[in-house]
Amino acid sequence: MKIRKHINYKLVILIILSIFSIVFVYNDYFLYKTSILKINNIENVYEEDSEFYTQKITGVIKNGKYKDNIITYENKSSYSGVYDEQIHDKSELLLELDSTGKEVIRFVGIKRDKYLVVLIILFINLLLIVTRFKGLKTLFTLFINILISIFSVLLFNQYRTNMNMLLLYIFVSLIFIILSLYIPNGKSKKTLAAILSSIISLFVSFSFSVILIKLFGSDLSIWNMEYMEIVYDYKNFFYVNILLCGLGAIMDIAITISSSLNELIVKNPRISKSSLLKSGKEISKDIIGTMSNVMLYTCFTPIIPTIFLAMRNGVILSRAFSLYGILDLVIVLCSAISIVLSIPISLYVSVLILKGKGGVK
Amino acid sequence: MIGVLSLVFFILLIIVGKERGIKTFITFYLNLFLIMLYLTFINLGMNAIILSIITCVLASFISLFILNGFNKKTLSSFISIIFVLLFVFIIICLISNYSNIQGFSFESVETIGAYSFNINYKMKDVIIGMYLICVIGTIIDTSISISSSMKEINDNNKKITKKELYYSGMNVGNDILNTTINTLFFALVSSFIGFILWHKGYSLEYIINYKSFAQSAIELLIAFIGSILIIPITAYISSIILKRK
Known about the structure:
- Chain A is α+β, with helices and mostly antiparallel strands.
- Chain A contains 10 helices and 5 strands, in the order H-E-E-E-E-E-H-H-H-H-H-H-H-H-H.
- In chain A, about 40% of the residues are buried.
- Chain B has one domain.
- Chains A and B meet through strand 5, helix 2, helix 3, helix 4 and helix 5 of A and helix 1, helix 2, helix 3, helix 4 and helix 5 of B.
């Protein structure tokens, strides 16, 4: 009874906070420096024999010194919506106005923060309700990881010229491993085994991938995309992609193996190393199957719209794929390889640490 | 390059996983083939949303019944996946209807600039389909882990009630969730890093409202939401199917 009341109490706080954040983000105009246009009326003017059309938009500015000014804006749009915005009456536009506050100088974008916040709130609510608030640790780990990622990029942006991106991210990924295994699992031999196996797996598989790419990767388009050099160090960024993509999966495998071996040792403290290895191999057969497919579906899908656009323009699938999909497939395959490599590594490291001198405490 | 990597992947799979490894290799390439097939068919002008649903069902069919055989646990996973797809589909439709996330934004103009944008196909449908396909991998993974452990628990303890079985399924799911969210985060984090590298010096309000940022963020959040929703649904459906005589 007491526990039940406790949960309800947390639930009430959660719901109040959620409603508050959603109401806030729907009215956060005062936070913006750019003018925000709330739309009153849209008139679509269609051109003959074309999928393109013009949207004549009238609306009111909601913030800043031009507040309550009525603005008209013309937006080019199309049926397909490849490279334009299809504005509808619920959108809010971010606009840059001239000094009179009547004319639009530049269209900045559509206000999308509210949709992101609604999804984030939905995610947090589902997570906490399904796990009965045990997911707080997960949420906290995620939050820390996001902070580290943002901080690392800002750091790199600041000192771009005299900093090696790859070295920076090798260092950052060590922090990622230690924190994301330590925070949810606490201080124990199990965690130590998982952290060490992840680090070793990461280094072995990453150097393996780099060697393979250096030896056989001469046909990759990455080596002749000079125009990208102006923007950032894309070659190193490609390696950073490979480094980070499989990182979560490696940790997943490491903690799964070390905690199930730990479970076996707790149940039978006298279990021998060889039988531990044998049961470990059984466990690894179960986890080997699905992970590579998760990587394929999650990492490969974002390239679909680009390949599709090329195909609609008459480029055949195999050509479009080798133009835009190959790098992503290389990244997916490298992380799939690192997943497979991490299984035996985690197994041996875990047995060594959990069954090392002193036995189990 | 792809050939070399595939070969290495294949050899490692055989060493580590024996015949299970071969099956994994086959499903991996069947799934890749499925995505190519999906692209071919939407290029012919068929509806991307309907096709993506078919692709998802086929993908779960491959991963569940080919990799794990047809039995009570794969059947309950299959039914749960269909339900979750439905929920996720509704969320995706609502979000992409309002947030204008179809199509490309400024930084991809180097890649797509050479093409005609007059393609007579709604990019909104393409992006809804993309999100559905993106989320399927992780829900299959989570669902099969939960239903397998529940079957183990049920086999080891025949006297367990339906309700107890449901709660142990939920516990298993909660244990997996932490690592699943971690895996998804790292699988997609580099797109955010790349994004911020591109947009050096832009203001925060510009970045969080930017189209391709919203696309990646929504993708990540939808994958998170899918992998949470699958837990109670698989636990519930498995507890019913496993307890049926």
